[in-house]
Write a structure and sequence with these properties.
mainly alpha
């Protein structure tokens, strides 16, 4: 029986050259399950886009590559936040 549902802490991501601080963040309080489901959805979106490019169904533009980078970085942040939540927030109730 699960007595504690792991939730995320705020996890910043997306550094760009013009902004040394993290530009975006996974919000605190997102359940690990929700974070992983959203990461899976983002990965599926990126995979569909890359397959369309690989099969020459769409013409390649650099914006496609940047979109894929942003989606993959967002998905990675969600997976990292969920992993951290499951490893760090899973303590026995007092």
């Amino acid at each position: 029986m699960i007595t504690h549902i792991p939730v995320t802490e705020e996890t910043g991501f997306l550094n760009i050259a013009t902004a040394p601080d993290k530009l975006l963040a996974v919000r605190a309080g997102v359940t690990a399950t929700n974070a992983l489901q959203n990461a899976s959805d983002m990965l599926a979106t990126a995979l569909d886009a890359m397959e369309a490019l690989a099969l020459d169904e769409v013409s390649f533009k650099s914006s496609h590559a940047m979109m894929a980078c942003h989606v993959l970085e967002s998905a990675k942040a969600l997976v990292n936040a969920a992993n951290h939540a499951m490893n760090c927030n899973f303590s026995a109730p007092s």
